[in-house]
Amino acid sequence: MATKIVIITAGLREPSSTRLLADRLGTSVRTELTLAGSTVESSFVELRPLGHAIIDAMLSGFPTAPLEEAFGTVAEADGVIAVTPAFNASFSGLFKAFFDVLPEDTLSDMPVLIGASGGTERHSLVLEHALRPMFSYLHAIVSPRGVYAATDDFGSHESGAALADRISRAAADYARLVQGCGPRQPHDAFAEDVAAMERLLQRDSS
Amino acid sequence: MTGMQFGIFTVGDVTPDPTTDRAPTEAERIRATVAIARKAEEVGLDVFATGEHHNPPFVPSSPTTLLGYIAAVTERIILSTSTTLITTNDPVKIAEDFSVLQHLADGRTDVMLGRGNTGPVYPWFGQDIRQAIPLTVEHYGLLRRLWREEVVDWEGKLRTPLQSFTLAPRPLDGIPPFVWHGSIRTPEIAELAAYYGDGYFANHIFWPASHTRTMIELYRKRFEHYGHGTPEAAVVGLGGHVFIRPNSQDAVREFRPYFDNGPVYGHGPSLEEFTSLTPLTVGSPQQVIDKTLGFRDYAGDYQRQLFLVDHAGLPLKTVLEQLDLLGGEVVPVLRKEFAVGRSPDAPDAPTHQSLLRARDAGTGPQTPQTPQTPGS
């Protein structure tokens, strides 16, 4: 059975350096997993076209069809790669808003590789102080090595080589994590709630 | 009345009319609610239900007081709630209030229980929202016994024990008010309704129909699991939200400012998106008829349809006109059409008289049959 990797990317422009980083992480992870003998199916969830739907879901309390489809794609993944631009010392609002409306427990036990892009390398700790804590809070298993790419990384030959090296190390770590975790069962919160209620009713009436 | 019941349910919000910026006073809103209930009876509807809220901008904090008054000025309509908070109200007080109401209204009353999800309300009544589900289970278990047993000895975890307690007055004719359990999307509530073989009411408004379908399928399946009958024999109610004018363009034009500024859905998806995604219908009587008949496609043959008509600052005059259209043009067609092809297994909507007849015939609802699981 193929390993399903879903790449969530919150870049805003075309071409987007966030998407560029996401592509490279995706390719590198695919290479590592393939070398280790897995078949990989990867797909992208681009947040920009879902922007209005995400805010509508926040206001109305329910997702429209394209957003619900994106939720389904994420829920059925064996692993997630999540990449955001760094805005004002944190992830972008759009990136955060997506995870705010994503149904609870979707990312529980999900191996996640984090990435961020930004104008200068001075924002690189955004991975550690914004992305990692949020995914930990969501009970994801965050891969130890994230990748931050600044504009300069795409500039010179030397810095480009250093970025490529960071990407392949992060991808190798993450591929081992995904393999270790194995195929993932999506959480069925609905069935769990009903089962818990049945137990409660039977306890109360016994 | 046989087959299905049709009626209205009110949230009881005091919202400024966005076209005039004028909000009714609380007194005006309460009197308007009574006028709406009387009108509902006059136009031939079967049910009037009021919400329960304990904070502004809402007025119905004491539903049985309101319903007791309405009982005195009506003759035929069933008085109910949408919902009575089983978590924050003491079950002893719920039992008493509805027993008295039942006697005053000569059996024209039932009750829809809900959890309530406004966090701050719980401590106002000495309760803890973190216990919402256990409170629901324990309080409802006690409420059922109070209505069914002459002398109750009871001990739970979340309320002081009762010793040799007898409810006064006893339920009218010894028949407890029929209980509906209402929820938007909490599967636990569908499970509770199924466990006891009570009615299940899906709020169905503000949300896509796909949620309602899932919940009703769950309820019907579990109703059968607990031995109350076939899935078709389960008792289902649905909400709905309509704004009607003879001409559909007029309905859309007139309702748009109330939608755009309304509580819950204002400033989110457009009116057009919302009407395509949720059961909200803004249009002609025929459009309301078509959309409502479509509910059966995913809810099966059901027993009770309540509409929200007085929300978001609509003036009383407009609401009364809505009721004229609902009672005059919509509901008579719905009664006829819903009866066509209705499954013989689908029960009629329960009333005091039907429960009394069932009890006397020995075919009343049975106590839950708890399947034994290993180790329990």
Largest sheet composition of chain A: 7 strands, mixed
Measured by residues with Cβ under 8 Å of the partner chain's Cβ, the largest interface is: A-B, 19 and 31 residues
Low-confidence stretches of chain B are 369-376
> Average pLDDT value of chain B?
93
Q: Biggest β-sheet of chain B: count, sense, barrel?
A: 9 strands, parallel
The N- to C-terminal Cα distance of chain A equals 45 Å
The coarse silhouette of chain A is globular
Q: Give the overall silhouette of chain B.
A: globular
Order of helices and strands of chain B: EHEHEEHEHHEEEHEHEEHHEHEHH
- Based on the structure, what is the oligomeric state of the protein chains? heterodimer
What class do helices, strands and sheet pairing of chain A give? alpha/beta
Rg from Cα of chain A: 18 Å
Strand content of chain A: 15-25%
Q: According to CATH, what is the class of chain B?
A: Alpha Beta
The count of DSSP E runs of length 2 or more, i.e. the number of strands of chain B, is 13
Q: What is the strand tally of chain A?
A: 7
Which class do the helix and strand fractions of chain B yield?
A: alpha/beta
Count of the domains of chain B: 1
Please identify, by name, the CATH architecture of chain B.
Alpha-Beta Barrel
Strand portion of chain B, in percent? 5-15%
Estimated helix fraction of chain B: 40-55%
Write a concise keyword list for the protein shown above.
heterodimer; A: alpha/beta; Rossmann fold; 7-stranded mixed β-sheet; 7 strands; globular; B: 376 residues; alpha/beta; two-stranded antiparallel ribbon; 12 helices; disordered C terminus; Flavoprotein-like_sf (chain A); FMN_Rdtase-like_dom (chain A); oxidoreductase activity (chain A)
Describe this structure in words.
The complex is a heterodimer of chains A (206) and B (376). Chain A is α/β, with parallel strands linked by helices and 206 residues long. Chain A has a single domain (3-205), classed as Flavodoxin domain (Rossmann fold). In chain A, 50% of the residues lie in helices and 19% in strands. In chain A, strands 1, 2, 3, 4, 5, 6 and 7 form a seven-stranded mixed sheet that branches. Chain B has 376 residues and is an alpha/beta fold. Chain B has a single domain (5-361), classed as Alpha-Beta Barrel (TIM Barrel). In chain B, 43% of the residues lie in helices and 13% in strands. Chain B contains twelve helices and 13 strands. Chain B has a nine-stranded parallel sheet with strand order 3-2-1-13-10-9-8-5-4, with helices on one face. In chain B, strands 6-7 form a two-stranded antiparallel ribbon. A two-stranded parallel sheet of chain B has the order 11-12. The N and C termini of chain B lie far apart (44 Å). In chain B, 46% of the residues are buried. Classes of the chains: A alpha/beta (206), B alpha/beta (376). Chain A binds chain B through residues 55-56, 59-62, 64, 190, 193-194, 196-198, 200-202, 204-206, and chain B through 133-134, 137-138, 141, 186-188, 190-192, 195, 206-208, 211, 214, 218, 222, 264-265, 267-269, 273-274, 277, 368, 370, 373, 376. Chain A: This is NADPH-dependent FMN reductase. Chain A: Residues 3-151 form the NADPH-dependent FMN reductase-like domain. Chain A: Keywords: Flavoprotein, FMN, Oxidoreductase. Chain A: One of its GO terms (molecular function) is oxidoreductase activity. Chain A: It holds the Pfam family FMN_red.
